[in-house]
Amino acid sequence: MMKKFLNKPEAFVDEMLQGILSAHPDQLKHVADDLRCIVRADAPKPGKVGLATGGGSGHLPLFLGYVGKGLLDGCAVGGVFQSPGADQMLEVTRAIDGGKGVLYIYGNYSGDRMNFDMATEMADMEEIRVESYVAGEDVASAPKGEEHKRRGVAGIFYVYKCAGAKADEGADLDEVKRIAEKAGANVRTIGVALSPVIVPEVGRPSFTIGDGEMEIGMGIHGEPGIRRGSLMTADEVVQEMMDQILPDLPYESGDEVSVLMNGLGATPKEELYVAYRKVAEILSEKGISVFKVYVGEFATSLEMTGFSISVFKLDDELKGLLAKPACTPFFEQVEL
Amino acid sequence: MMKKFLNKPEAFVDEMLQGILSAHPDQLKHVADDLRCIVRADAPKPGKVGLATGGGSGHLPLFLGYVGKGLLDGCAVGGVFQSPGADQMLEVTRAIDGGKGVLYIYGNYSGDRMNFDMATEMADMEEIRVESYVAGEDVASAPKGEEHKRRGVAGIFYVYKCAGAKADEGADLDEVKRIAEKAGANVRTIGVALSPVIVPEVGRPSFTIGDGEMEIGMGIHGEPGIRRGSLMTADEVVQEMMDQILPDLPYESGDEVSVLMNGLGATPKEELYVAYRKVAEILSEKGISVFKVYVGEFATSLEMTGFSISVFKLDDELKGLLAKPACTPFFEQVEL
Amino acid sequence: MFDVSQAKAALHAVRLTMEENRDRLIELDSAVGDGDLGLTMCKAFVTADQELAGSSETDVGKFLMQAGMTMAKSAPSTMGTLVATGFMRGGKALKDKTACAPADIAAFFRAFSDGVMERGKAKPGNKTLVDVLEPVAVAAEEAASSGDMDTVAAAIRDAARKGEEASRGMMSEHGRAAIYREQTIGKPDPGAVAGRLMIEAFASVLK
Amino acid sequence: MFDVSQAKAALHAVRLTMEENRDRLIELDSAVGDGDLGLTMCKAFVTADQELAGSSETDVGKFLMQAGMTMAKSAPSTMGTLVATGFMRGGKALKDKTACAPADIAAFFRAFSDGVMERGKAKPGNKTLVDVLEPVAVAAEEAASSGDMDTVAAAIRDAARKGEEASRGMMSEHGRAAIYREQTIGKPDPGAVAGRLMIEAFASVLK
Ligand SMILES: Nc1ncnc2c1ncn2[C@@H]1O[C@H](COP(=O)(O)OP(=O)(O)O)[C@@H](O)[C@H]1O
Ligand SMILES: Nc1ncnc2c1ncn2[C@@H]1O[C@H](COP(=O)(O)OP(=O)(O)O)[C@@H](O)[C@H]1O
Ligand SMILES: [Mg+2]
Ligand SMILES: [Mg+2]
Ligand SMILES: [Mg+2]
Ligand SMILES: [Mg+2]
Predict the structure, then answer these.
(1) Residue D76 pLDDT > 80, yes or no?
(2) I need a labelling partner for D82 at 20 to 30 A (CA). Which of A128, B267, B324, D93 fits?
(3) Which chains have 3 or more CB–CB distances shorter than 8 Å to chain B?
């Protein structure tokens, strides 16, 4: 049974965008007469590398929620769980190029890859230099050694944040790309889900999870995880998740990290904090210190019940960039 | 079927608080050896009126989420949907009194009223001057003319925000109380719910809403609303809600307002923006201009599906206070 | 004469009756509220009984105030807070007394009832605890003129029972039960029942 | 010789076959994917057909590139993007030609297949559209030496059918279907079916 606040399901994405644009006119605008091409209200920023992202709808604040000061310059918006088109990415690219080129940062999904590649080709024909960083840090989506196959999930936040801060310093495209790669290489994520979601245009759950069941490692579109089983206690779930994340980088005694506890949509913040309590305990036992903890919704899947944990390994450079202020309609941070 | 990330249900609130305190040690601490007495890490602030709130758990970021710079100084935390005790309020009061007295700002629920009144009496015995402002702006909870019976819901955010900014200016207790009263008098809220919630210790839904049904005006603990009926389109729901809010103050052509679109827990941000689109349309038709829109979760009810709309009428004084920066672990705002 | 040792006996007697009626109170509160009344009343009086049984306080007023404080800490629900307020206000009225005459007992129940009304804003007739406490206060004042403690005990016991009985016919206007309004008419009010049990137990030690 | 008017006819023919097979493609994609293939293929070719029917372009290469651009805009799903890429790359290979010989057609399908492989990273044998396109490219190259367009048409039609048939036995390793892996063996690949339909329609106008 679909129980949502909707008008016509087909109009869902565009009405959402109309709502966003009318709520935040000082911060965001659309270009090319296409609601799905969203850029900063003050774009382009001359002399700054432009940062663009894009992806399917249904993941707010991903993706367009990170367009704003200290973060990204533009975003191409797709249908629910669908890649935006290459032409929309190209429009965004044109609108944010400040003469220093554009870096695409997006998640490793084949539709997005194909379209961003096509957009890159189109931008090249217009002599806009474009580079890409494809984020993929979900340890449940492919084993160690096959990192290039991993899906990008909530950890992309750290890539946006560090690359955005670097671009703000006036760094050139190669340098900003280096930071994006470094941030991406230092983050690992794993999720757990308790319930499926309903895509408005589909109208029924696209997969099922039994009463009393959970799936560890499920992707944000319901991609299969690494284990489905009976729902365990919060502490047990967190332990199993951390057992996947920590050996993967690996994170070791003496490391300093930032942690992102990300709600997938319907999970109350209360539960995210119950879970974080156990994360903190595990990290402290391993001798890993924590610099900054983010708790909230950073990459969702409509009304999915579940959460993900991302751990981001810091060095002085990344820590300095993470600490920089940022401000979008969906994310604000004062200087740390 | 209860599907939550939990350890022991009885430990839910305390484990959540442990998580919060370990995630944000630079911003929050507890006092009196009681996790449920939360204050700013830098409390007391000498020479500043102390602002305290309190209420049941299950509403994050209400109530403790508004403890921090530019907002409140302390919060007494109750069990899920239960008032904290007067002695806990007293401990918070002691810990935040900077010599200029303390203002209690909390929602109009009888348990909270009784306990805050008792705490006031106890604080008087210790010669701490305490005043109270009891927020109640849910137009669905009592008719016009009986405003004193109305429940306090998400609109209390505006009271916190303005009073917090005023206290930061160094204003005295009477002046801060005046602002709290003025802000409270200028806000109206109404909610709509599609699903019930499960209190962890109870383990089953405390009320039901049929498949395909919605309830307009339902309170954040499931208190009855003004109408239960079939789920309508987002536009129709918003129209019915705004028809309750706008005539109540009333809000009129030429007014300037801030709008708060508050998710009750499980409703995706996408849907809040679809709903805001219609709010913006209605306000614009009425000739009411919008200064700042907040969209997100500001006062929740665990995993309830639904949202509330709050409209806050501005004048120069309130607008100036609303625009001031604030920073807590749950809410950050740069100067507007 | 009512002194601290009798006050201790009173707390203990109330505790026992609450423990005995625990399930009945849960049942009553489940029908029109959240069902916790049996638990909170036990918690309030078990804690007060335990913490104060060994007290060396001789001032009856201070002792009863302390009992109220203990209840406030241990049971922050509606009835917990109201009963705590009653003991604190009643105790205040007996401050500096080591032994109480019938007139003092009357003053205690008057302050108790007034305190609960001030705290909870309910008036007689709203179908709450007040519908037991207020007739008890009135009866204690009237009976006090006899100068006889047994007369006071009998009067408050009687008033509590009648008050509880009368409250059945009323409509709930406060607390969670107020949601049911008309549907509560004819049903016992959980708080009034708990109040009657408390007064009966209290009366049983008065001499 | 293949010119713009024939290219227009090809787009129209593909459109008709996609419309005819709309429900079948939806059904096939529902079994191993999200079920949108019938919709997106129709959208891509209906739009291309409509927007370019009145084109005054005479350069076949540019015309086919424009067709690809139109598809990219109208159908941003996997197959939409891949087919668009194919038309754009294939068109690029024919740039500046107003009439194409069999060797040009072979160059078109070679660039088409290479473009799809580069864009989608799938190789022959991965059970995708490529398992139709690559044999088609090879067959067109071989048949082109005959210098006869009918021979080319027959060769690509034949290669497309055989390619689709062969792909049944493969295991999906790309796109949504890759989730099902082993379970896809023996089932038709929706993209390969759509690819075969496209080639058949294209072949029908080649002369
Ligand atoms: N405002 C009030 N004033 C006096 N008594 C009240 C008031 N509200 C509720 N009560 C009494 O409290 C009883 C319920 O107590 P309790 O179960 O502790 O409430 P809750 O669980 O809702 O906090 C009611 O039966 C009624 O007698
Ligand atoms: N990486 C790829 N390279 C080539 N073809 C692919 C690739 N991924 C999927 N396909 C083809 O696309 C078909 C599905 O297309 P489509 O329904 O548009 O996908 P989706 O709806 O998942 O975007 C598959 O049957 C397969 O033939
Ligand atoms: Mg109760
Ligand atoms: Mg209760
Ligand atoms: Mg598909
Ligand atoms: Mg698709």
Answers:
(1) no
(2) A128
(3) A, C
Contacts for B20 with CB less than 8 Å, ≥ 6 apart: A273, B28, B38, B64, B329
Mean pLDDT of chain B: 96
Among residues B185, B201, B220, which one ends one of the domains? B185
Q: Tell me: do B116 and B194 sit in the same domain.
A: no
Across the range D144-168, mean pLDDT stands at 97
CA gap B117, B104 in Å, rounded: 10
Q: In chain D, which residues have their Cβ closer than 8 Å to the Cβ of A82?
A: 76-77
CATH number at residue A54: 3.40.50.10440
pTM assigned to the model: 0.92
Tell me whether residue A4 is in a domain: no
Residue B4 lies in a domain: no
Tokens read off for D125: 């044998």
Inter-chain residue contact D76 with A82, CB threshold 8 Å: yes
Please tell me the predicted confidence (pLDDT) of residue A207: 83
What ipTM is given for this predicted complex? 0.89
Phi, psi at residue B161, to the nearest 5°? -60, -45
On whether residue A3 sits in a domain, the answer given is no
Contact A60 B268 (CB under 8 A): yes
Q: Do residue A301 and residue A160 come from a single domain?
A: no
C107-134 tens-digit pLDDT: 999 999 999 999 999 999 999 999 999 9
Query: Are residues A260 and A280 part of one domain?
Result: yes
B232 and B323 fall within a common domain? yes
Q: Specify if B324 maps to a domain.
A: yes
Would you call C69 an interface residue with chain B, using a CB distance cutoff of 8 Å?
Answer: yes
Of B4, B24, B276, the CB nearest to A19: B276
Looking at every residue in chain C, the average pLDDT score rounds to: 96
Range of the domain at B58: 9-185
Task: Give φ, ψ of A43 to 5 degrees.
Answer: -75, 150
Distance from C-alpha of C64 to C-alpha of C95, rounded to nearest angstrom: 9
Calculate the average pLDDT of chain D: 96
Chains C and D touch (3+ CB pairs under 8 A): no
Query: Which one of B185, B217, B250 terminates a domain?
Result: B185
- How far apart CA D148 and CA A63 sit, in angstroms, is 52
Percent of chain C at pLDDT > 90 equals: 89
Range B312-320 average pLDDT: 98
Any D CB within 8 A of A110 CB: yes
Domains in chain A: how many in total? 2
Tokens at B69, concatenated: 């710079």
pLDDT on residue B204: 85
| C78 and B CB contact within 8 Å | yes
- The protein residue with its alpha carbon nearest to ligand 2, atom 1, reads D120
Whether D78 sits inside 8 A of A110 (CB atoms) is: yes
Tell whether ligand 2 has an atom less than 6 A from the beta carbon of residue D170. no
Ligand 6 centroid to D84 CA: how many Å? Answer: 15
- Tens-digit pLDDT profile for residues D170-188: 999 998 898 888 999 999 9
Q: Does B309 touch chain A (CB under 8 A)?
A: no
DSSP readout, A277-293? HHHHHHHHHHT-EEEEE
Share of chain A above pLDDT 70, in %: 100
As its CATH architecture, domain C4-203 has Alpha Horseshoe (1.25)
